[in-house]
Design brief:
The structure holds three protein chains of three kinds.
Chain A (H helix, E strand, L loop, with lengths): L2 H19 L5 E6 L2 H4 L3 H11 L4 E6 L11 E4 L5 E4 L7 H5 L9 H12 L18 H5 L4 H7 L3 H11 L11 H10 L6 E6 L8 H8 L1 H15 L3 E6 L4 H16 L15 E6 L9 H9 L22 E5 H5 L1 H7 L1 H6 L8 E8 L5 E6 L4 H8 L9 E6 L6 E3 L11 E3 L3 E2 L4 E6 L4 H15 L5 H18 L5 H17 L3 H6 L1 H19 L1
Chain B lengths: L1 E6 L2 E6 L4 H8 L24 E2 L18 E3 L3 H15 L8 E3 L5 E3 L2 H8 L22 E3 L9 H6 L10 E3 L6 E3 L16 H5 L5 E3 L8 E6 L8 E6 L5 E6 L12 H5 L14 E4 L2 E4 L2 H13 L6 E4 L6 H14 L5 E2 L7 H10 L9 H6 L2 E5 L3 H4 L1 H12 L4 E5 L12 E3 L6 H14 L5 H7 E2 L1 H8 L4 H8 L3 H12 L6 E5 L1 H4 L4 H14 L9 E4 L6 H6 L6 E2 L3 E2 L2 H10 L13 H10 L4 E5 L3 H4 L3 H9 L3 E6 L4 H4 L3 E4 L8 E4 L4 E5 L12 H15 L13 H10 L9 H7 L2 E2 L24 E2 L19 E6 L15 H6 L4 E4 L1 H6 L7 E5 L4 E8 L7 E5 L28 E7 L5
Parallel strand pairs in B: 1-4, 16-17, 16-26, 18-19, 18-22, 19-20, 21-32, 22-23, 26-27, 27-28, 33-37, 34-36
Antiparallel strand pairs in B: 1-2, 3-4, 5-6, 7-10, 8-9, 11-12, 12-13, 14-15, 14-28, 24-25, 29-30, 30-31, 33-38, 35-36, 35-38
Chain C lengths: L4 H11 L7 H12 L4 H11 L3 H8 L13 E6 L2 H19 L12 E6 L11 E3 L2 E3 L4 H12 L1
Parallel strand pairs in C: 1-2
Antiparallel strand pairs in C: 1-3, 3-4
Helix pairs in contact in C: 1-3, 2-3, 3-4, 5-6
Bound molecules: ligand MGD (2 copies), flavin mononucleotide, iron/sulfur cluster (5 copies), FE2/S2 (inorganic) cluster (2 copies) and molybdenum atom (MO).
One iron/sulfur cluster binds next to α4 and α5 of chain B.
């Protein structure tokens, strides 16, 4: 690492320690406030704590650690370094929590069982999420933050790209395109300025991991973005955040301001001479907004419609300039790779599929939340091992993996490992990593209809196959459900699903048939029975 | 560079940058392409152009795939055909009733055009799906409907209205998903939007969802010619039906001036051609009444009478609507047969100040640049011109410069015109104060050292004299005189002198010329372009936007009192040159009179006979009551026109000419482009082309008077006339019909047969020599007649998009009349209230000279104290009964843009 | 803000450069100011940014988060995504529909309350979720929801 750069980082670490040492010898109270936890009272808890806080304690606002089931969550560390965790905390219970004597903690059995929730994860990207102060930069730096950036800045951009190629990192937005290739692609286009867009639209139902990252470890995302910009020869980056994710936008905004103040953004980053400006933009709703070309239209002030590719954004993206578009999670994985080397990342996960994936786990599980597991982990390990299985002794009937663009698995497929792209040829993909466990409370066909209807509602209407095809799929499903469908309708349904997948303009339509095709594959007979009637 | 690939196994070579679809089309094999317009970018919406490409997954849309070397493409495998068929079936299922050929009430098959062809080619006979609900039809536009029930949401119309062509943006795709629809702002009817009825959307619609109310039944042939209305000179393709009537006008993507665009007049304004009012036989006044006669009787009668007035008692007005050949013959007739140089045309009432100033300062009176230069400029200044209304297609190209290329637009106009919506800066001077404004801008350029010294020192003269004058024009002073904030004036000067890229163009119109300060205004503009050096390089230049379709050509052809064709000023040399060219007969050798002088001479009775073709002074002259008295004094008046208009009505003889649609010839447009006019239909009634009538007349007179010039008027075809003109006119010497037919329009100067023509002038020197001349002017009185207690308002006259001058033609084009059936008196709401007239009330406007009636229109376009009325005559009312005949001393142009009026209520509604 | 075009134009001038890319930010600003996008205000935005009003409207109608009509005094969105549906969202939706009622019964909420479905509130971990006047709540029980609706009706 070149001296000037490491010196710059060192002085940042010193000032971070200095700030933190102000709290030396005090009780540290961490409240996890995230989009979800705040919806179940985390704010009130924080406010109550703030008022009740004794002289010898200080409070820290962190993001969530992903244990949605335990939210709101508070952890207290006494000077004695004796520490306690409080789950499903409420404003009423804060006083007790603050006194070391009191034994008011969560029921131990739940606590132990739940230990697996974390033990069975491998958290690189989520490391420190839920423990570190998400509203200031100091905790992140004190915990080794921006080391990856310092490392990158003391390498040539080409070497950075090489390192990331070695890590095998693929895009976490769902398409799993090799990150290094994308950067290289934009870099090789001799047309400036180039742009970086961080895709934090996260408009896909059942997925809440990018929010989680922005709320919990905003600086890790930012660090990854700066590295990507450096590698791709970009000097202006936009962080494009979902219109509804106000908390995420708030925390990212702060992080950006702090980074400017700390010389981690601006025209001489870590006195390396590299310059980067970062601006935050808000979306305006709709699944298709997350599609990279639609996102560009939104940023340029046009209708919410995808653009035909080619040209690909790396050739001609924002304002026709070469543009790298990466998902939030993709970039949040980058600091680890630079700090610990591509090999370290490549060592994790399965043979061909490197690293970890953040999963949004929900539906019929004991422990819904945001979890990080190596590629290659089976659905069983995720749903039962980490998630604790199905509550109230119910039966797992199906698993919706990868959201509305993907398919539905029967319970029998539990031992399928997660990996990029299709995990089953019937149209089931990992996508952005949403896993929704289903039990008998909801039938397969109902589930399929929900996903199909969702795709129809979200179709932007630009191209004919998707606009006209998706509603007709729903209609056919309805006739099947209402029992007055013929066998030929079933055929029509399959053909239509295949047509829409094959002929549509953008990824939404190109995957809109998957829920149906997978159900036809796994539950074909049941449907046939329904339609004979 | 070219690319070689194979389509269905057959190799083909296409140009670099071509798409796979281009390649397929070039290969001659058919594939649907419903959302891809040949002249616009791919959209990718219809998904009917799917193909298979070896090595590429799935079924890519060929319109979006760049052709690459060695690509192997298949359009006809069973899989891909099934795929396209599936998409087409879904497309047809968008219609409430969805047969590929739906039989409507009348039982006749309703054809969905490109979609039906695609369906047929994919063997679709019966509906695969049931149809679906669609939004209702928008029938608010009088000319065409937008029918959602046959719309496939391909978005071509949207693209055509927006950045594909017109940059108007009246319509867009609205909503999302199946709710998607084509519509205007806030679901309002199209007629309430900014829609100009240009029909571009209609021209690209693949299904006929956008269609004129009465579609043509048959098309027998298509003739490529040139629009007869304005000086932009758009190419049109006239579609003629079995009954030899023009039933549609299509745009011409090949035309270099209009690049595939048309405005409402060019596309829908043609129906005057077949209007029942067309003059079909010669008329002679017999005991008071105009009576139909045969050609022999008419022409002999004219010949006998004109014989009495040869020499100074005769004057003629040529037509800027007629062809170059018509004009050339008319001036030749006047000089050679009538021995008079009293030859002029409507430019006198139009750009004569511009021409006057440009001749003095540069030595040539034409627009220096091309529409192409607008698109390459970094700054456009539009001053005293309402290009959106009056040069619509040029305006579209200006908007492209702004929207697509980021040029900065500065509008200088007392009235808020549509262009202001696209402007970086809108300066709103008081009428008649442009000299002060422009001098102040020049001073800013001098003071802030934005001067182009290289240009000033190297290529101009009299700079110091001029500088002394403009030094007086401080921003403070200019602000006081013009009412424009000093900051804005300075900003405008900076942007103009130092655009972010490219050069700067000065574009002006009648707001500059039609003032007693007209020539001063024009000089001030030229000076500005000199000091900033914005002349003689790409993306810069000076553009007096020429008005009539052939006003440029009319001057070029010598329809001027002081010059032979090609601006060869009357002198010993030129006179002898043309004597030799025209058979060694004597020619008058003194400059003749201009229109406005002719009027005075008519008043004195010194001009006794007049021959007017294609012009209607009794609507276009100012102060019409007086003008009519003057014309009544003529002993003999011949009017040659296509309609019996106000002037014809008082003539002794009226001769029926053919319109542009019935003759061959050439027009020369505002960018000096000579373009072919081609006969599309047979002459209406007994009408004959102007040149032919004049030649016939000339020969009769020559015989009667033994002038021996018959051979000088013996032509078989207009091309012979053109050739004679070219042979004697250096600026067009290299242009021939043969070239025009082969290459399309050519821009003069074009001195030799292998010269490519000239895009912009003054690259190295000027016709007057190596240096352009600064000519200083001071701001004079705002106008001759200013508001008073009795006449408190300023009347500003001009045009509207849908009418042409007095309206002789456009009142007879139903589509245009439908868009603007009444005279609208534009005023600010404040004035309306002050003078107690309601918005939409039928009111009258009075000046010292006359009155008119029309409908009050409250609009934020007008400033308090100013009203605007187009000078078209509607319901017998016209602005020129009110206008003042004060003249600009240098060019003799009337001050049409300022006179004092008052608003009055009228009791009984019309 | 009242319906003063010039006032709005001034505001826009100060906060949004005249660039096409400012359209979405400007529309967000309107929605924030008015709770929806008034026609006249969209015209002013187009005017300021140099974008034809039809194109402003075309864009506005394509984004689901932008409102073209004034909402009623309260907006309740019930998440009906998979996770919520499974965990009681369905009941909440029925409950809300019932509470809204129709024009006929007068103690119904339909004229004070705009009821919408959300396809996901991104609270899957704490399902079921509802949003009331822009504030999301998770683990919503029928009782809790009943209270919320009663709140709204006051
Ligand atoms: N639709 C249509 N198109 C036409 C014609 C037509 O009749 N109808 N006629 C054709 C002909 S022959 C011509 S010459 C052209 C004319 O084309 P334009 O020159 O555009 O015609 P006008 O509408 O007469 O006036 C132009 C503008 O000058 C402004 N103006 C008035 N006074 C002043 C002033 O003191 N200073 C400044 N800066 N501006 C002022 C007026 O507000 C008006 O907007 O149009 C041609 N095109
Ligand atoms: N108040 C006011 N008055 C103005 C102006 C203004 O701005 N305000 N503008 C002035 C300007 S710029 C101009 S150019 C004049 C225009 O004034 P004019 O030239 O008098 O007006 P037009 O109506 O165009 O006259 C053209 C005539 O040619 C006829 N015509 C068309 N085609 C042919 C053909 O092929 N052969 C023959 N023989 N005739 C044909 C038409 O029927 C029409 O009668 O008006 C001037 N008057
Ligand atoms: C309908 C649709 C929705 C999408 N939504 C998102 C999203 O919310 N977030 C995201 O990062 N990528 C989304 N994508 C993928 C993006 O188009 C793009 O591939 C991705 O942002 C690239 O980043 P990555 O390479 O780091 O994954 C979506 C794609 C489609 C077709
Ligand atoms: S596939 Fe669907 S979402 Fe994508 S462009 Fe076509 S209609 Fe729009
Ligand atoms: S007629 Fe012209 S302006 Fe009107 S909608 Fe069609 S393209 Fe746009
Ligand atoms: S109206 Fe015609 S051009 Fe426009 S979208 Fe519909 S089908 Fe296409
Ligand atoms: S712009 Fe002029 S030339 Fe072109 S179509 Fe319109 S009127 Fe004709
Ligand atoms: S909030 Fe969560 S559970 Fe509810 S719908 Fe959204 S994703 Fe599903
Ligand atoms: S509670 Fe924060 S992610 Fe679930
Ligand atoms: S022509 Fe290629 S998608 Fe329409
Ligand atoms: Mo004119």
């Amino acid at each position: 690492m070149t001296d000037s750069i490491s010196d710059a980082l060192e002085s940042l670490r010193k000032s971070a320690d200095a700030h933190r040492s102000m709290h030396g010898g005090k009780t540290r109270v961490v409240v996890q406030v995230g989009h979800c936890s705040q919806a179940v009272g985390a704010r009130d808890v924080a406010d109550a704590l703030a008022n009740a806080l004794p002289e010898d304690a200080y409070m820290v606002i962190a993001g969530c650690d992903g244990a949605c089931f335990a939210a709101p969550k508070v952890s207290v560390t006494f000077p004695s370094s004796d520490s306690r965790e409080y789950w499903n905390m409420s404003a009423e219970r804060v006083r007790g929590a603050l006194n070391e004597g009191a034994a008011d903690s969560s029921p131990s059995d739940r606590f132990c069982a739940a230990a697996d929730f974390f033990n069975k994860q491998s958290r690189l990207t989520l490391d420190g999420c839920g423990g570190m102060d998400a509203t200031v930069i100091d905790d992140y730096i004190a915990n080794g933050g921006y080391r990856g950036l310092a490392q990158a800045l003391s390498m040539t951009p080409e070497d950075v790209i090489h390192e990331v190629r070695a890590s095998g990192l693929r895009g976490r937005g769902g398409a799993y395109f090799p990150a290094a290739l994308k950067w290289q692609g934009a870099r090789s286009v001799r047309n400036t300025p180039r742009y970086l867009v961080v895709n934090c639209e996260e408009g896909e139902p059942g997925i809440f991991k990018d929010r989680h990252l922005m709320e919990g470890v905003p600086h890790r995302l930012l660090e990854g973005a700066i590295i990507a910009a450096y590698a791709s020869g970009v000097h202006t980056a936009y962080i494009y955040i979902n219109a509804e994710a106000n908390l995420s936008a708030e925390r990212m905004q702060r992080a950006v301001e702090q980074a400017y103040a700390a010389g981690l953004l601006g025209d001489d980053i870590l006195s390396s001479g590299f310059a980067l400006d970062v601006r935050i933009m808000r979306g305006a709703g709709g699944y298709v907004c997350g599609d990279e070309t639609t996102l560009l239209n939104t940023m340029e002030g046009y209708r919410r419609e995808p653009r035909q590719r080619p040209p690909f954004p790396t050739e001609a993206g924002l304002w026709g300039k070469p543009t790298v578009i990466n998902n939030a999670e993709t970039l949040a994985s980058v600091p680890y790779i630079l700090a610990n080397g591509g090999e370290a990342f490549a060592a994790i996960g399965a043979e061909a599929d490197k690293g970890t994936k953040i999963i949004s786990l929900s539906g019929a599980v004991q422990r819904p939340g945001v979890v990080e597991a190596p590629m290659g982990t089976t659905l069983r390990e995720i749903i039962y091992g980490i998630g604790g299985g199905i509550p109230d002794g119910k039966e797992l009937t199906a698993i919706a993996v990868g959201g509305p663009s993907s398919g539905i698995f029967p319970a029998s497929m539990l031992d399928t490992p997660i990996k990029p792209g299709f995990i089953h040829e019937s149209g089931v993909m990992l996508g952005a990593g949403g896993i929704i466990a289903l039990d008998e409370r909801m039938s397969i066909v109902q589930t399929m209809r929900k996903l199909a209807a969702y795709n129809a509602d979200e179709s932007c209407g630009k191209c004919t196959p998707c606009r006209e095809g998706t509603p007709r799929m729903v209609a056919l499903v309805d006739s099947i459900m209402s029992g007055n469908a013929s066998a030929s309708d079933l055929n029509d349904l399959r053909r239509l699903a295949e047509l829409v997948n094959a002929a549509s303009l953008c990824g939404l339509g190109q995957a809109a048939g998957n829920p149906i095709l997978s159900v036809l594959h796994f539950f074909g007979d049941e449907l046939a029975m329904m339609s004979e009637a | 560079m070219s690319v070689t690939l194979s389509i269905n196994g057959h190799g083909i070579e296409v140009h670099d940058g071509a798409s796979v679809l281009d390649a397929i089309n070039q290969s001659g094999s058919y594939i649907p392409q419903l959302c891809k317009d040949p002249d616009m970018k791919p959209i990718g919406a219809c998904r009917t152009c799917l193909v298979q490409i070896e090595g590429v997954r799935g079924y890519p849309a060929s319109c979006g795939q760049p052709a690459a070397d060695g690509m192997r493409i298949w359009t006809d495998t069973p899989e891909v055909q099934a795929m396209r068929k599936g998409v087409l079936e879904l497309t047809l299922a968008m219609f409430p009733s969805n047969d590929a050929k739906e039989t409507n009430g009348a039982g006749s098959a309703k054809d969905y055009r490109e979609l039906s062809i695609a369906a047929d080619s994919h063997g679709i006979t019966t509906p695969r799906w049931s149809g679906r609900e669609r939004e209702t039809t928008d029938a608010s536009n009088p000319v065409f409907n937008i029918a959602m029930e046959s719309c496939i949401l391909c978005q071509r119309c949207v693209q055509a209205c927006q950045d594909g062509h017109q940059f108007i943006g009246a319509i867009d795709m609205l909503g999302a998903g199946t709710q998607g629809r084509i519509g205007a702002f806030a679901e309002k009817p199209l007629i309430e939007s900014v829609c100009t009825t240009c029909g571009q959307c209609l021209s690209v619609c693949p299904t006929g969802a956008i269609e004129v109310k009465v579609p043509p039944l048959s098309i027998a042939k298509e003739v490529t010619t040139t629009c007869p209305y304005c000086g932009v000179g758009c190419g049109v393709k006239a579609q003629v039906d079995d009954n030899d009537r023009i039933v549609a006008m299509l745009d011409d993507p090949e035309n270099q001036s209009s690049v595939g665009m048309l405005c409402v007049k060019g596309r829908f304004g043609y129906s005057f051609v077949n209007h029942e009012d067309r003059l079909t036989a010669p008329l002679i006044r017999k005991n008071g009444a105009l009576t139909e006669v045969g050609w022999d009787e008419a022409l002999d009668y004219v010949a006998v009478n004109l014989a009495k007035y040869r020499g100074d008692a005769f004057a003629t007005l040529c037509s800027a609507k007629a062809t170059n050949e018509d004009g050339y013959i008319q001036q030749k007739f006047a000089r050679l047969v009538m021995q008079s140089n009293h030859i002029d045309h409507c430019t006198r009432l139009c750009h004569s100040p511009s021409v006057e100033a440009m001749l003095t300062a540069l030595g040539s009176g034409a627009t220096s640049n091309s529409y192409q230069d607008y698109e390459e400029a970094g700054c456009l200044v539009i001053i005293g011109s309402d290009a959106n209304a009056n040069h619509p297609v040029a305006a579209s190209r200006m908007r492209r410069a702004v929207i697509e290329h980021g040029a900065k637009l500065i509008v200088i106009n007392p009235r808020r015109i549509e262009m202001c919506d696209f402007a970086e800066l809108w300066l709103r001077p008081r009428p008649g104060t442009d000299v002060a404004l422009l001098n102040a801008m020049a001073k800013v350029i001098l003071d802030e050292d934005l001067t182009d010294w290289e240009f000033v020192n190297g290529r101009t003269e009299d700079f110091e004299e001029w500088r002394e004058v403009v030094d007086k024009y401080t921003l403070e002073y200019a602000e006081r005189v013009t009412g424009v904030s000093a900051a804005d004036i300075a900003e405008a000067a900076r942007i103009y002198a130092a655009p972010e890229f490219g050069g700067s163009c000065l574009i002006w119109g009648m707001g500059i010329t039609q003032h007693t300060m007209g020539t001063a205004n024009a000089h001030s503009l030229l000076n500005l372009s000199f000091v900033a050096g914005q002349l003689g390089k790409p993306g810069s230049g000076i553009s007096p936007l020429r008005g009539q379709n052939n006003v440029q050509g009319c001057g070029d052809a010598g329809c001027l009192p002081n010059a032979f064709p090609g601006y060869q000023i009357i002198s010993e040399d030129t006179v002898s040159k043309f004597q030799q060219a025209w058979g060694n007969h004597i020619l008058p050798d003194e400059e003749g009179l201009v229109i406005t002088e002719m009027m005075t001479y008519m008043d004195f009775g010194r001009i006794k006979a007049m021959y007017i073709t294609g012009e209607n002074p009794l609507l276009s002259e100012p102060n019409l009551h007086h003008a009519e008295e003057t014309f009544q004094k003529l002993e003999f008046l011949v009017v040659q026109d296509i309609f019996l208009h106000e002037t014809a009505a008082i003539a002794d003889v009226v001769l029926p000419a053919t319109s542009f649609a019935e003759k061959d010839g050439t027009f020369t447009n505002s960018e000096r482009r000579v373009q072919r006019v081609r006969k599309a239909v047979e002459p209406i009634g007994a009408s004959r082309p102007d040149w032919e009538i004049l030649c016939d007349l000339a020969q009769r007179m020559s015989r009667d008077l033994a002038l021996g010039v018959e051979d000088q008027f013996a032509y078989a075809h207009p091309s012979e006339i053109w050739q004679e003109m070219a042979d004697n006119t250096p600026i067009v010497a290299g242009i021939s019909y043969e070239r025009l037919n082969r290459e399309g329009g050519i821009q003069w100067p074009c001195p030799t047969p292998n010269h490519p023509g000239t895009r912009y002038l003054y690259e190295s020197d000027f016709p007057r020599g190596s240096r352009a001349k600064f000519v200083a002017f001071d701001q004079g009185p705002q106008a001759e007649e200013m508001p008073s207690r009795r006449f408190p308002l300023i009347l500003n006259t001009g045009r509207v998009l849908y009418h042409w001058h007095g309206g002789t033609m456009t009142r007879r084009a139903s589509s245009l009349l439908a868009r603007a059936p009444e005279l609208q008196i534009n005023m600010s709401a404040e004035d309306g209230e002050r003078y107690g007239v309601a918005d939409g009330e039928w009111i009258s406007l009075k000046s010292r000279r006359g009155l008119l009636e029309g409908r009050a229109l409250y609009t934020d376009k007008m400033r308090v104290g100013e009203v605007f009325v187009p000078f078209v005559k509607l319901q017998e009312h016209a602005a020129n009964f009110l206008t003042s005949d004060a003249l600009d001393p240098f060019s003799g142009i009337p001050e049409y843009k300022v006179c004092a009026v008052r608003i009055e209520r009228v009791s009984e509604e019309q | 803000m009242n319906n003063d075009r010039n006032e709005l134009r001034g505001l826009l001038r100060r906060s949004f450069p005249r660039e096409h890319g400012q359209l979405l930010p400007a529309l967000h600003f309107l929605q924030h100011e008015f709770g929806y996008l008034p026609e006249w205000a969209m015209e002013v935005v187009g005017w300021h940014l140099g974008i034809p009003s039809s194109e402003v409207y075309g864009a506005a109608t394509s984004y689901t988060e932008l409102r073209l009509h004034k909402p009623r005094s309260h907006v309740v969105r019930v998440c009906t995504g998979l996770g919520c549906w499974l965990n009681g969202g369905e009941q909440l939706w029925e409950q809300a529909r019932a509470a809204i009622g129709d024009a006929s019964d007068n103690d119904a909420l339909h004229d004070v309350l705009t009821l919408e479905q959300s396809s996901c509130g991104y609270l899957c971990g704490v399902a079921p979720a509802v949003e009331v006047d822009g504030v999301w709540q998770g683990r919503v029980t029928p009782e809790l929801f009943g209270g919320i609706l009663r709140e709204a009706s006051r």
